[in-house]
Design brief:
With about 210 residues, the chain is α/β, with parallel strands linked by helices. The protein is about 30% helix and about 25% strand. The protein has one domain (about 5-205): P-loop containing nucleotide triphosphate hydrolases (Rossmann fold, 3-Layer(aba) Sandwich).
């Protein structure tokens, strides 16, 4: 592991086809948006280093196709994942209902029982909305996950989603292993926040 890197975290982006998973990843990695973004075939993989509370971590982000024909990839996709972002389209209630199925799949295949989950309601830039913010919050509360709404097009909520997920992972004892060559720099505020809940204008740590 590279010097100066606290740890490497495996992050999954999960959800139905067409909800904007790849667009969220493109916005987070390259700060770009492609309105003609093609559907992912199989699995896409990107890495990025970010700094949270003075700790630099490398993210290995897996973006998978939502289509059924790629479900054979499932076991290896979930193995050793530290966190998962579950994405639905706020203009499509069926993609929201499918989040329950994706949560069940995580529980079935994830090898880390304390994997951190965040539900993301994407495409809030669209005028048409079928899923209210309150519905998203209620779902997150039922499953004890983080929650945020986002728009890959306008950037709204994208960076915050990844930052909040990574922060929660770092705050979770036993979920990850540190690079032995670097000190862990958990601030007092981080330790205090570990037992608390976050309910901001967009992000909710339930």
């Amino acid at each position: 592991m590279e010097a100066g890197i606290l740890t490497t975290l495996k992050i999954l982006i999960i959800g139905e086809s067409g909800v904007g998973k790849s667009s969220l990843l493109l916005r987070f990695i390259d700060d770009n948006f492609d309105p003609e973004q093609p559907l992912t075939i199989g699995v896409d993989f990107k890495t990025k280093e970010i700094t949270i509370d003075g700790n630099t971590v490398k993210l290995a982000i897996w973006d998978t196709a939502g289509q059924e024909r790629f479900r054979t990839l499932t076991p290896s996709y979930y193995r050793d994942a530290h966190g998962a972002i579950l994405v639905y389209d706020v203009s499509s209630h069926i993609t929201f209902r499918k989040i329950e199925d994706w949560l069940t799949e995580i529980d079935t295949y994830a090898t880390k029982p304390n994997l951190i989950k965040m539900i993301v309601g994407n495409k809030i830039d669209l005028e048409k909305r079928e899923v209210s913010r309150d519905e998203g919050i209620r779902l997150a509360k039922r499953h004890a996950t983080l929650f945020i709404e986002s728009s890959a097009k306008t950037k709204d909520g994208v960076q915050t989603a990844f930052q909040e997920l990574v922060q929660k992972i770092i705050q979770t004892p036993g979920l990850w292993e540190a690079n032995p060559y670097d000190k862990i720099n958990l601030s007092n505020s981080q330790e205090a926040e570990y037992e608390s809940s976050c309910m901001g204008s967009k992000c909710s740590a339930i």
